[in-house]
Protein backbone atom coordinates (compact mmCIF):
# COMPACT_ATOMS: atom_id res chain seq x y z
CA UNK A 1 0.00 0.00 0.00
CA UNK A 2 1.52 3.32 -1.09
CA UNK A 3 0.42 6.80 -0.03
CA UNK A 4 1.72 9.95 -1.72
CA UNK A 5 1.71 12.60 0.98
CA UNK A 6 2.43 16.26 1.44
CA UNK A 7 1.13 18.40 4.26
CA UNK A 8 -1.22 17.56 7.10
CA UNK A 9 -3.96 15.87 5.07
CA UNK A 10 -1.61 13.30 3.57
CA UNK A 11 0.05 12.65 6.92
CA UNK A 12 -3.27 12.11 8.68
CA UNK A 13 -4.48 9.69 6.02
CA UNK A 14 -1.18 7.81 6.24
CA UNK A 15 -1.73 7.45 9.99
CA UNK A 16 -5.19 6.02 9.36
CA UNK A 17 -3.79 3.67 6.74
CA UNK A 18 -1.22 2.44 9.26
CA UNK A 19 -4.06 1.15 11.43
CA UNK A 20 -5.81 -0.46 8.46
CA UNK A 21 -2.96 -2.30 6.72
CA UNK A 22 -0.22 -2.42 9.38
CA UNK A 23 3.32 -1.07 9.18
CA UNK A 24 4.79 -3.89 7.10
CA UNK A 25 2.41 -3.13 4.21
CA UNK A 26 2.60 0.66 4.25
CA UNK A 27 4.97 2.90 2.30
CA UNK A 28 4.59 6.68 2.30
CA UNK A 29 6.29 8.72 -0.40
CA UNK A 30 6.67 12.27 0.87
CA UNK A 31 7.12 15.58 -0.90
CA UNK A 32 10.51 17.24 -0.41
CA UNK A 33 9.83 20.41 -2.39
CA UNK A 34 9.35 22.25 0.94
CA UNK A 35 12.81 21.35 2.25
CA UNK A 36 14.85 24.23 3.59
CA UNK A 37 18.33 24.74 5.00
CA UNK A 38 18.17 27.07 7.98
CA UNK A 39 19.89 27.59 11.38
CA UNK A 40 22.67 25.30 10.16
CA UNK A 41 20.24 22.40 9.79
CA UNK A 42 18.38 20.69 6.98
CA UNK A 43 14.61 20.71 7.56
CA UNK A 44 12.41 18.33 5.58
CA UNK A 45 8.91 19.41 6.65
CA UNK A 46 6.67 16.87 4.90
CA UNK A 47 8.69 13.68 5.54
CA UNK A 48 9.10 14.77 9.17
CA UNK A 49 5.39 15.56 9.49
CA UNK A 50 4.50 12.10 8.19
CA UNK A 51 7.03 10.50 10.53
CA UNK A 52 5.75 12.36 13.59
CA UNK A 53 2.17 11.33 12.78
CA UNK A 54 3.11 7.68 12.27
CA UNK A 55 5.06 7.73 15.54
CA UNK A 56 2.12 9.31 17.40
CA UNK A 57 4.49 12.12 18.34
CA UNK A 58 2.79 14.99 16.49
CA UNK A 59 2.16 18.10 18.59
CA UNK A 60 -1.36 19.43 19.07
CA UNK A 61 -0.29 22.46 17.01
CA UNK A 62 -0.41 20.14 14.01
CA UNK A 63 3.35 20.34 13.35
CA UNK A 64 6.53 19.52 15.22
CA UNK A 65 7.15 17.06 18.03
CA UNK A 66 4.78 16.88 20.97
CA UNK A 67 5.93 18.75 24.09
CA UNK A 68 8.96 20.21 22.33
CA UNK A 69 10.63 23.28 23.82
CA UNK A 70 11.83 26.39 22.00
CA UNK A 71 14.84 27.56 24.01
CA UNK A 72 17.11 27.87 20.96
CA UNK A 73 14.60 30.07 19.12
CA UNK A 74 14.28 32.25 22.19
CA UNK A 75 18.06 32.52 22.40
CA UNK A 76 18.36 33.48 18.74
CA UNK A 77 15.72 36.18 19.14
CA UNK A 78 17.59 37.53 22.15
CA UNK A 79 20.62 37.83 19.89
CA UNK A 80 18.59 39.82 17.38
CA UNK A 81 18.06 37.02 14.85
CA UNK A 82 14.93 36.75 12.72
CA UNK A 83 13.32 33.44 13.70
CA UNK A 84 10.46 33.52 11.19
CA UNK A 85 10.80 29.74 10.77
CA UNK A 86 9.98 28.43 14.24
CA UNK A 87 11.66 25.14 15.14
CA UNK A 88 11.45 23.28 18.42
CA UNK A 89 14.67 22.20 20.09
CA UNK A 90 14.29 18.50 19.26
CA UNK A 91 13.08 19.39 15.77
CA UNK A 92 16.25 21.44 15.33
CA UNK A 93 18.32 18.51 16.62
CA UNK A 94 16.83 16.37 13.83
CA UNK A 95 17.67 19.08 11.28
CA UNK A 96 21.26 19.39 12.51
CA UNK A 97 21.79 15.63 12.46
CA UNK A 98 20.33 15.44 8.94
CA UNK A 99 22.63 18.23 7.71
CA UNK A 100 25.59 16.35 9.16
CA UNK A 101 24.54 13.17 7.36
CA UNK A 102 23.99 14.86 4.00
CA UNK A 103 27.25 16.79 4.25
CA UNK A 104 28.94 13.47 4.94
CA UNK A 105 27.62 12.02 1.69
CA UNK A 106 24.63 10.05 2.95
CA UNK A 107 21.39 9.99 0.96
CA UNK A 108 18.29 11.79 2.20
CA UNK A 109 16.57 8.38 2.05
CA UNK A 110 19.06 6.94 4.56
CA UNK A 111 18.84 9.97 6.84
CA UNK A 112 15.06 9.63 6.95
CA UNK A 113 15.35 5.89 7.61
CA UNK A 114 17.50 6.65 10.67
CA UNK A 115 14.86 9.08 11.96
CA UNK A 116 11.97 6.66 11.50
CA UNK A 117 13.91 3.94 13.28
CA UNK A 118 14.78 6.28 16.15
CA UNK A 119 11.11 7.21 16.60
CA UNK A 120 9.92 3.60 16.37
CA UNK A 121 8.16 3.91 13.01
CA UNK A 122 8.10 0.56 11.24
CA UNK A 123 6.29 1.71 8.09
CA UNK A 124 8.55 3.01 5.31
CA UNK A 125 8.70 6.76 4.79
CA UNK A 126 10.55 7.67 1.61
CA UNK A 127 11.55 11.08 0.26
CA UNK A 128 10.44 11.50 -3.34
CA UNK A 129 14.06 12.01 -4.44
CA UNK A 130 17.55 12.16 -2.98
CA UNK A 131 18.26 15.13 -5.24
CA UNK A 132 17.16 18.65 -4.32
CA UNK A 133 13.85 19.91 -5.68
CA UNK A 134 12.66 23.28 -4.43
CA UNK A 135 9.21 24.77 -4.85
CA UNK A 136 9.29 28.49 -5.64
CA UNK A 137 6.25 30.76 -5.62
CA UNK A 138 6.01 33.97 -7.61
CA UNK A 139 3.59 36.41 -5.99
CA UNK A 140 3.36 40.15 -5.33
CA UNK A 141 6.33 40.70 -7.59
CA UNK A 142 8.64 38.51 -5.49
CA UNK A 143 9.97 34.95 -5.57
CA UNK A 144 9.61 32.94 -2.38
CA UNK A 145 10.57 29.52 -1.15
CA UNK A 146 7.45 27.64 -0.17
CA UNK A 147 7.93 27.90 3.58
CA UNK A 148 8.65 31.61 3.29
CA UNK A 149 5.51 32.07 1.20
CA UNK A 150 3.33 30.09 3.61
CA UNK A 151 4.64 31.81 6.73
CA UNK A 152 5.76 35.29 5.77
CA UNK A 153 3.29 36.13 3.01
CA UNK A 154 0.12 35.13 4.83
CA UNK A 155 -2.19 38.10 5.32
CA UNK A 156 -3.81 39.16 8.61
CA UNK A 157 -7.08 37.54 7.49
CA UNK A 158 -5.30 34.21 6.92
CA UNK A 159 -5.31 34.40 3.12
CA UNK A 160 -2.41 34.58 0.66
CA UNK A 161 -1.78 36.83 -2.34
CA UNK A 162 -2.67 35.63 -5.81
CA UNK A 163 -0.04 33.33 -7.26
CA UNK A 164 1.65 34.37 -10.50
CA UNK A 165 3.71 31.23 -11.05
CA UNK A 166 4.86 28.03 -9.33
CA UNK A 167 8.22 26.49 -10.18
CA UNK A 168 9.74 23.19 -9.10
CA UNK A 169 13.42 24.00 -9.40
CA UNK A 170 15.56 20.94 -10.01
CA UNK A 171 12.64 18.61 -10.69
CA UNK A 172 13.34 18.10 -14.40
CA UNK A 173 16.83 16.79 -13.62
CA UNK A 174 15.92 14.89 -10.44
CA UNK A 175 15.20 11.18 -10.26
CA UNK A 176 12.89 9.21 -8.05
CA UNK A 177 14.86 6.91 -5.77
CA UNK A 178 15.08 3.17 -6.49
CA UNK A 179 13.03 2.62 -3.33
CA UNK A 180 10.26 4.90 -4.60
CA UNK A 181 10.13 3.26 -8.02
CA UNK A 182 10.12 -0.21 -6.46
CA UNK A 183 7.27 0.75 -4.12
CA UNK A 184 5.17 2.02 -7.03
CA UNK A 185 5.87 -1.09 -9.09
CA UNK A 186 5.04 -3.50 -6.26
CA UNK A 187 2.00 -1.66 -4.86
CA UNK A 188 -1.42 -3.26 -4.63
CA UNK A 189 -3.00 0.19 -4.44
CA UNK A 190 -1.70 3.77 -4.58
CA UNK A 191 -3.46 6.64 -2.84
CA UNK A 192 -2.74 10.31 -3.51
CA UNK A 193 -3.41 11.90 -0.14
CA UNK A 194 -5.78 14.82 0.48
CA UNK A 195 -2.99 17.31 -0.09
CA UNK A 196 -2.71 20.52 -2.09
CA UNK A 197 -2.52 19.12 -5.66
CA UNK A 198 -0.19 21.90 -6.83
CA UNK A 199 2.41 22.47 -4.10
CA UNK A 200 2.22 19.21 -2.14
CA UNK A 201 1.66 16.60 -4.87
CA UNK A 202 2.87 18.70 -7.81
CA UNK A 203 6.59 18.50 -6.94
CA UNK A 204 6.40 14.71 -7.00
CA UNK A 205 4.63 14.60 -10.34
CA UNK A 206 7.20 17.06 -11.75
CA UNK A 207 9.94 14.43 -11.38
CA UNK A 208 9.84 12.60 -14.73
CA UNK A 209 10.78 9.13 -13.49
CA UNK A 210 8.31 9.30 -10.59
CA UNK A 211 5.48 10.36 -12.88
CA UNK A 212 6.35 7.58 -15.32
CA UNK A 213 6.53 5.09 -12.45
CA UNK A 214 3.09 6.13 -11.25
CA UNK A 215 1.59 5.83 -14.73
CA UNK A 216 3.32 2.49 -15.38
CA UNK A 217 2.20 0.87 -12.13
CA UNK A 218 -0.41 -1.84 -12.46
CA UNK A 219 -1.89 -0.77 -9.12
CA UNK A 220 -5.12 1.25 -9.13
CA UNK A 221 -4.47 4.88 -8.24
CA UNK A 222 -7.04 6.98 -6.40
CA UNK A 223 -6.84 10.53 -5.08
CA UNK A 224 -8.56 11.87 -1.98
CA UNK A 225 -9.96 15.39 -2.26
CA UNK A 226 -8.55 17.94 0.21
CA UNK A 227 -11.81 19.93 0.12
CA UNK A 228 -14.39 19.61 2.89
CA UNK A 229 -17.94 20.44 1.80
CA UNK A 230 -16.49 22.50 -1.03
CA UNK A 231 -14.20 24.53 1.25
CA UNK A 232 -10.43 24.68 1.65
CA UNK A 233 -9.53 23.55 5.17
CA UNK A 234 -6.12 25.24 5.35
CA UNK A 235 -3.35 26.61 3.19
CA UNK A 236 -3.34 28.36 -0.20
CA UNK A 237 -5.13 25.58 -2.11
CA UNK A 238 -7.58 28.03 -3.65
CA UNK A 239 -4.82 30.34 -4.90
CA UNK A 240 -2.84 27.39 -6.27
CA UNK A 241 -5.78 25.88 -8.14
CA UNK A 242 -6.83 29.20 -9.64
CA UNK A 243 -3.26 29.67 -10.88
CA UNK A 244 -3.56 26.29 -12.60
CA UNK A 245 -6.84 27.40 -14.17
CA UNK A 246 -8.96 25.01 -12.11
CA UNK A 247 -11.76 26.12 -9.79
CA UNK A 248 -11.28 25.25 -6.11
CA UNK A 249 -13.95 22.55 -6.32
CA UNK A 250 -14.09 18.76 -6.49
CA UNK A 251 -14.49 19.16 -10.23
CA UNK A 252 -11.26 21.19 -10.25
CA UNK A 253 -9.45 18.50 -8.26
CA UNK A 254 -10.61 15.86 -10.75
CA UNK A 255 -9.41 18.02 -13.64
CA UNK A 256 -5.92 18.39 -12.19
CA UNK A 257 -5.59 14.62 -11.73
CA UNK A 258 -7.09 13.61 -15.09
CA UNK A 259 -4.97 10.95 -16.75
CA UNK A 260 -3.09 10.20 -13.53
CA UNK A 261 -5.66 8.57 -11.28
CA UNK A 262 -8.36 5.95 -11.77
CA UNK A 263 -10.77 7.25 -9.17
CA UNK A 264 -11.49 10.04 -6.72
CA UNK A 265 -12.64 10.02 -3.09
CA UNK A 266 -14.66 13.14 -2.22
CA UNK A 267 -17.71 14.28 -0.30
CA UNK A 268 -19.56 15.15 -3.51
CA UNK A 269 -19.83 13.64 -6.96
CA UNK A 270 -18.22 14.94 -10.13
CA UNK A 271 -18.07 13.78 -13.73
CA UNK A 272 -15.19 12.19 -15.56
CA UNK A 273 -13.92 9.76 -12.92
CA UNK A 274 -15.33 7.00 -10.74
CA UNK A 275 -16.02 8.71 -7.41
CA UNK A 276 -16.48 7.30 -3.93
CA UNK A 277 -18.71 9.81 -2.17
CA UNK A 278 -17.99 9.77 1.56
CA UNK A 279 -17.08 11.99 4.47
CA UNK A 280 -13.44 13.03 3.94
CA UNK A 281 -13.10 14.89 7.23
CA UNK A 282 -10.57 13.20 9.53
CA UNK A 283 -11.43 14.78 12.86
CA UNK A 284 -10.03 11.95 14.98
CA UNK A 285 -8.47 8.49 14.87
CA UNK A 286 -11.81 6.86 14.10
CA UNK A 287 -12.32 9.19 11.15
CA UNK A 288 -8.81 8.56 9.85
CA UNK A 289 -9.24 4.80 10.00
CA UNK A 290 -12.68 4.93 8.36
CA UNK A 291 -11.49 7.07 5.46
CA UNK A 292 -8.36 4.96 4.99
CA UNK A 293 -10.37 1.73 4.95
CA UNK A 294 -13.01 3.07 2.55
CA UNK A 295 -10.36 4.54 0.26
CA UNK A 296 -8.42 1.27 0.13
CA UNK A 297 -11.56 -0.78 -0.55
CA UNK A 298 -12.57 1.64 -3.30
CA UNK A 299 -9.12 1.48 -4.91
CA UNK A 300 -9.07 -2.33 -4.87
CA UNK A 301 -12.59 -2.45 -6.32
CA UNK A 302 -11.31 -0.66 -9.43
CA UNK A 303 -9.04 -3.61 -10.20
CA UNK A 304 -5.52 -3.76 -11.54
CA UNK A 305 -4.57 -1.66 -14.53
CA UNK A 306 -4.01 -3.53 -17.78
Your description of this structure?
- The protein is 39% helix and 17% strand.
- α7 (178-186) packs parallel to α9.
- β1 (2-5), α1 (7-21) and β2 (27-30) form a beta-alpha-beta unit.
- It has helices spanning 7-21, 45-54, 71-78, 89-103, 108-118, 146-152, 178-186, 202-205, 208-216, 237-243, 250-256, 285-301; strands at residues 2-5, 27-30, 36-38, 41-43, 124-127, 134-139, 142-145, 163-169, 190-192, 221-224, 227-228, 231-232, 263-266, 275-277.
- It has twelve helices and 14 strands.
- The strands form four sheets. A seven-stranded parallel beta sheet has the order 5-2-1-9-10-13-14, sandwiched between helices. It has a three-stranded antiparallel beta sheet with strand order 7-6-8.
- It is globular and about 60 Å long.
- The chain folds into two domains: 2-132 and 174-301, Rossmann fold, CATH 3.40.50; 134-169.
- It has 306 residues and is an alpha/beta fold.
- Number of extended strands: 14
Strand content: 15-25%
User: Any idea what the CATH architecture of the largest domain is?
Assistant: 3-Layer(aba) Sandwich
Can you identify the CATH superfamily of the largest domain?
CofD-like domains
What count of helical segments does DSSP give? 12
**Domain module count:** 2
Structural class: alpha/beta
The pLDDT mean sits at 96
Report the order of strands and helices: EHEEEHHHHEEEHEHEHHEEEHHEEH
Radius of gyration over all CA atoms, rounded: 18 Å
Assigned CATH class of the largest domain: Alpha Beta
- Sheet with the most strands? 7 strands, parallel
What is the CATH topology classification name of the largest domain?
Rossmann fold
Name the overall outline.
Answer: globular
Percent helix range = 25-40%
Strand order across the largest sheet: 5-2-1-9-10-13-14
Q: What is the rounded distance between the termini? A: 19 Å
